[in-house]
Automatic annotation (TrEMBL):
Required co-factors: FAD
UniProt keyword annotations, A-Z: FAD, Flavoprotein
Pfam families in the record: Pyr_redox_2 (PF07992), Rubredoxin_C (PF18267)
Protein name: FAD-dependent pyridine nucleotide-disulfide oxidoreductase
Domain FAD/NAD(P)-binding: 1-297
């Protein structure tokens, strides 16, 4: 059996390990447009800030490919997929497959702003991006980050730690709007400002100015900011380039079934490029979260090798820190509708904030700032879609834990058994 995987991040690695659980002998080939050993993309901001080395960014040990008998073709870009001929087109020649996984991830959204082709403008999702920025980020430089989402905020954090004067812009009225509510966003913004980040919200760049090199940006409000570095971080979109001319069906991402198989037999997709099943919304959605990408890849790998497996579904989950302030968020955090129940506990003095969102006595989302120790329990309640009516008032407590469960449920959780055993 010939397995070909396009991509070299979490979903592809999950697929390799999934395949080898079932098939020890089939050939596995990984195609990647990047030449690097598999690495954890969330760590690129830490590399910029000199908190990790290139070796420490690896998602798997150096001998991973040899250990799993994988042919890694780094720096070899997949250009197209010919599903009728069962080949992947590359500049160096076509590669045949019996089973194919598309795990091309996402690519940055670049707005149609004049001047973005000037020297000094970067995106921030790949290792090559951050290597270029690292060459110019130095004390005394000024940077503008377009976008106050996860990517933009992590870029800003790293730039400030490099001594770069940094301003973050966003059209929204708050930062991290996809994972925080208004109050939590205010708290995180205030914390970031104490560390040196400046913000201009309800604003954005309409022109990047300079000769060949960036010298300033013109804002929507007609003000001008001098800068040496511009980072475009307004968001990402599934990287569908390789399948655009094929008969593989896609919506926002590639459409897949419960086995992660696409509309074309023997072709699978996983990770940020696919639309997997979202447990909370009850339908197919892009789930651009690393743990989901790995799980989808592992299911796809086992299914490609003939195992009867299914992806049970996932949901949005983020565990990050900004300037030492940890935050975990999951599921639906900005609900709309009277069917949702919201519980909030706040302590501004120690920057703690807890928000639990319930629907029909089931946890469907949460925000935890600076008090994240029991987030794993809450995540488990979401995944299990557990009825929490008996103890839901305890969910908001700082010390919430298994002690608040009914005795038989607590015993089952701690022993791995079932309630009532």
């Amino acid at each position: 059996m010939k397995y070909v995987l396009i991509g070299n991040s979490a979903a592809a690695i999950g697929a390799v390990e999934g395949i080898r659980k079932v098939d020890k002998k089939g050939t596995i080939t990984i195609l990647s447009d990047e030449p690097y050993h598999t690495y954890s993309r969330p760590l690129i901001s830490y590399y910029l800030a000199d908190k990790v080395t290139e070796d420490q960014m690896r998602y798997r040990p150096e001998d991973f490919y040899a250990l799993h008998d994988v042919q890694f073709l780094g720096g070899r870009k997949a250009l197209a997929v010919k599903t009728g001929e069962k080949t992947v087109v590359t500049a160096e020649g076509d590669i045949p497959y019996d089973k194919l996984l598309i795990a091309t991830g996402s690519k940055p959204i670049v707005p149609p702003v004049p001047g973005l082709d000037r020297e000094g403008v970067y995106t921030f999702i790949k290792f090559d991006d951050v290597k270029k920025i690292k060459e110019v980020a130095a004390p005394g430089k000024k940077a503008v980050v377009i976008g106050a989402g996860l990517i933009g905020m992590k870029a800003a954090e790293a730039l400030v730690q490099c001594g770069v004067e940094t301003t973050v812009l966003d059209l929204s009225d708050r930062i991290l709007s996809s994972i925080l509510d208004t109050r939590a966003a205010e708290m995180v913004k205030a914390h970031a400002e104490t560390k040196g980040v400046a913000f201009k919200l309800n604003n954005t760049v309409v022109e990047v100015r300079g000769d060949n090199k960036v010298s300033s940006v013109l804002l929507k409000d007609n003000n001008e900011l001098p800068c040496d570095i511009v980072i475009v971080a307004i968001g990402v979109t599934p990287n569908l380039d390789v399948i655009k001319e094929s008969d593989i069906k896609y919506n926002r991402g590639i459409l897949v079934d419960e086995k992660m198989q696409t509309s074309v037999p023997d072709v699978y997709a996983a990770g940020d490029v696919s639309e997997g099943y979202d447990l909370l919304y009850g339908g197919q959605r892009v789930l651009p979260i690393l743990p989901n990408a790995y799980m989808q890849g592992e299911i796809a790998g086992q299914a490609m090798a003939g195992a009867e497996v299914q992806f049970g579904g996932g949901f949005a989950f983020n565990a990050i820190g900004l300037f030492g302030l940890p935050m975990n968020t999951a599921g639906i955090v900005n609900p709309e509708g009277s069917e949702y129940e919201i519980m909030v506990d706040e302590s501004s003095q120690d920057k703690c904030y807890r928000k639990i969102v319930l629907k029909n006595d089931r946890v469907v989302g949460f925000i935890l700032l600076n008090s994240i120790d029991r987030s794993g329990i809450l995540t488990g309640l979401i995944r299990e879609q557990a009825d929490v009516k008996a103890f839901k008032q305890d969910l908001i407590r700082q010390d919430f834990g298994y002690i608040h469960f009914a005795p038989d449920v607590r015993k089952a959780k701690l022993t791995g058994g079932k309630a009532g055993d």
